[in-house]
Amino acid sequence: MVEYALRPAAPDDADFLFRVYASTREAELAVVPWTPEQKAAFLRMQFKAQDTDYRARNPEARFLVIETGGRPADGSILT
Questions:
Q1: Which residues contact 22 (CB under 8 A, 6 or more apart)?
Q2: What is the mean pLDDT of residues 14-34?
Q3: Which of 9, 14, 28, 38 is most buried, judging by how many CB atoms fall within 10 Å of its CB?
Q4: How far apart are alpha carbons 55 and 29 in whole angstroms?
Q5: Is the pLDDT of residue 79 over 60?
């Protein structure tokens, strides 16, 4: 049985949260004729814009990370 825990997102989670966000855009960007560097720059810009907007619109929101085995869950346990 896999156990899960929730914890507040911390500044150290920024790279992990970006990777999760970027993973949701892979199929969309697969057809764009950009270099990996251009895609990464675009994704960073989009991630920052989304995060900034969400935090501004939801100042009371709690940002949580799901952990399994003491590590952020990235979906790999599902494959």
A1: 40, 43, 47
A2: 94
A3: 9
A4: 25
A5: no
